[in-house]
């Protein structure tokens, strides 16, 4: 099978967010109108919805805009087509996604905010006054209809100025006045929908609009945007089969590879999600790549990590031992001066929910997938450490360990890990080494491996346990088991007893690597079978 065997190849849009343009140009749209229909039917009048960048927030609002403008012809063949009455309402649409900190915020809103009514499109600048409430009243009274208000990326101006608290505070005050008229305009509003990256509680919109329903972690709408596993398989099975052949892998085996690379975002439901940006690019380019990461690190997050005393290594360590916890109140950012780095990284998509304690409203966080883990390891860790540590030593340890693993050379692995412990890490404070030495060792070896751009899976779980690390490469899998103050032979026996059978169907060769660090003698023993 080759790529020209597709009977109807999809024209998959990359970065296009205007629904009407997609449909009119015959571009692919993965139908999410079933979830939008459910939201419009049973959701609240005032809604807030947060998701990471490139997740599809803007396209979702564009779909909602066209539904509520009554453009039924655009939805032919989609779920909502014969279920919604497509009554026409005026729509106010304001996107702050294109705002940058060198722009005048008021002028940006006036020149880019739009009002659609009576088959016309007007800018907010076309009105004689810059008052949201007065505009809503005028449009509603002139059309005899309530107005739909859609605001995208509301927090972009604040996040763009995280490192300048004075300006961020000025913007917050501006928005307090800007939104203050909305609650008094309830009779003129049909639907109010606000999206963003974070819920900045100190922005007075969340006190002025105290009836705003935060549906960000509402299980009914957890997959309002993002692709589920079922949606990926139902919409892209032909394309994935072709790409699997290019990788010399079976379809089901390749699906697991795709899951590991891209799946794993969790927003409080039972469904794990893909970022559409990754899948759309992967299908189009027919290769696995870090497409979401390649769009760049948001400047606000880069500056925050680089200029504040954030220890990314500590965050990574906590993720490794399943101890990175945030509360529901942490996620509702009350004070920009006390913004937790894990909360910012969670909202930006570099961390996601691993486990939820519903009673205490607390969340344990993890890396969503291999791509986000690589960004944390290769970018944020370096950004956090680059003024403190010599990365050359990391690279030397990594090269020895990786060369030893792929060469099945136990002496070289032993040298690499000894070098890691005694040279690379001698000046690093291992806060929880004594509390969890095995977890510490796994984390450090994992970081060394990933610094050589080698992909690995940590703590792959089955019904009887979890192996420490495994590295899939072509038709071979390298299984690593690490222990402290025991012996490497017991590591091999554990692999053979608990884990080896799980890999036999998918790999032609299984390489077992047992690693033991005797802390008392400071000796590393390695066995490769």
Describe the 3D structure:
The chain is of the alpha/beta class. The chain has 3 domains: 31-221, Rossmann fold (3-Layer(aba) Sandwich); 299-372, no CATH class; 390-528, Trna Endonuclease, Chain: A, domain 1 (3-Layer(aba) Sandwich), CATH 3.40.1350. It is built from 21 helices and 19 strands. The protein has helices at residues 19-24, 33-42, 57-68, 105-112, 132-143, 156-159, 165-179, 205-208, 229-246, 251-262, 276-285, 291-294, 299-307, 312-320, 328-331, 341-348, 370-385, 391-406, 410-424, 437-450, 488-503, and strands spanning 46-50, 91-95, 114-117, 120-123, 147-152, 189-196, 199-200, 213-214, 227-228, 273-274, 325-327, 332-333, 352-357, 362-366, 457-462, 465-473, 476-484, 509-518, 523-528. The chain has a 7-stranded mixed sheet. It has a 5-stranded mixed sheet with strand order 15-16-17-18-19, sandwiched between helices. Strand 17, helix 21 and strand 18 (509-518) form a beta-alpha-beta unit. Helix 9 (229-246) crosses helix 10 (251-262). The longest helix is centred in the middle third of the chain and has 18 residues, at 229-246. The relative contact order is 0.08.
């Amino acid at each position: 099978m080759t790529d020209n065997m597709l009977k109807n190849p999809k024209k998959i849009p990359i970065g296009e967010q205007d629904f009407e343009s997609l449909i009119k140009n015959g571009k692919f749209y993965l139908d999410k109108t079933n979830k939008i229909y459910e939201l419009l039917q049973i959701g609240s009048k005032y809604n807030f919805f947060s998701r990471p960048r490139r997740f599809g927030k803007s396209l979702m609002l564009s779909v909602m805009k066209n539904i509520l403008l009554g453009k039924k012809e655009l939805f032919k063949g989609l779920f909502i087509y014969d279920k919604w009455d497509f009554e026409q309402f005026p729509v106010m649409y304001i996107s702050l996604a294109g705002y940058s900190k060198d722009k005048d915020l008021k002028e940006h809103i006036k020149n880019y905010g739009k009002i659609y009514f009576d088959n016309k499109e007007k800018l907010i600048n076309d009105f004689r006054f810059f008052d949201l409430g007065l505009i809503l009243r005028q449009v509603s009274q002139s059309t005899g209809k309530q107005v739909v208000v859609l605001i995208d990326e509301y927090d972009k101006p604040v996040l763009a100025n995280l490192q300048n608290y004075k300006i961020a505070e000025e913007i917050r005050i501006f928005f307090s006045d800007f939104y203050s008229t909305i609650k008094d305009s309830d009779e003129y509003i049909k639907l109010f929908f606000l999206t963003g990256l974070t819920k900045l509680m100190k922005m007075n919109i969340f006190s002025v609009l105290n009836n705003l329903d935060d549906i960000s972690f509402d299980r009914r709408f957890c997959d309002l945007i993002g692709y589920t596993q079922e949606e990926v398989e139902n919409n892209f099975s032909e394309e994935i089969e072709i790409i699997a052949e290019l990788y010399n892998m079976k379809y089901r085996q390749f699906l697991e590879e795709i899951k590991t690379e891209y799946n794993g975002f969790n927003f409080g439901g039972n469904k794990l999600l893909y970022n559409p940006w990754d899948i759309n690019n992967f299908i189009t380019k027919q290769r696995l790549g870090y497409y979401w990461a390649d769009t760049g690190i948001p400047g606000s997050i880069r500056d925050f990590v680089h200029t504040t005393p954030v220890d990314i290594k500590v965050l990574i360590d906590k993720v490794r031992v399943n101890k990175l916890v945030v509360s529901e109140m942490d996620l509702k950012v009350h004070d920009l001066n006390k913004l937790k780095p894990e909360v910012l990284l969670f909202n930006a998509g570099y961390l996601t929910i691993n486990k939820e304690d519903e009673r205490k409203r607390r969340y344990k966080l993890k890396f969503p997938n291999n791509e986000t883990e690589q960004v944390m390891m290769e970018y944020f860790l370096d950004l956090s450490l680059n003024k403190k540590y010599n990365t050359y030593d990391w690279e030397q340890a990594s090269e020895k360990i990786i060369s030893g693993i792929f060469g099945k050379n136990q002496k070289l692995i032993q040298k690499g890990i000894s070098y890691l412990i005694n040279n690379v890490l001698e000046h690093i404070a291992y806060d929880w080494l004594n509390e969890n030495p095995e977890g510490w060792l796994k984390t450090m070896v994992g970081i060394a491996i990933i610094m050589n751009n080698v992909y690995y899976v940590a703590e792959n779980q089955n019904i009887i346990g979890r192996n420490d690390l495994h590295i899939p490469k072509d038709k071979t899998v390298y299984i690593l088991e690490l222990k402290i103050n025991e012996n490497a032979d017991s590591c091999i026996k554990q692999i053979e007893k608990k884990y080896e059978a799980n890999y036999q169907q998918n790999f032609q060769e299984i390489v077992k690597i047992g690693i033991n660090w005797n802390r008392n003698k400071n000796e590393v023993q390695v066995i490769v079978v």
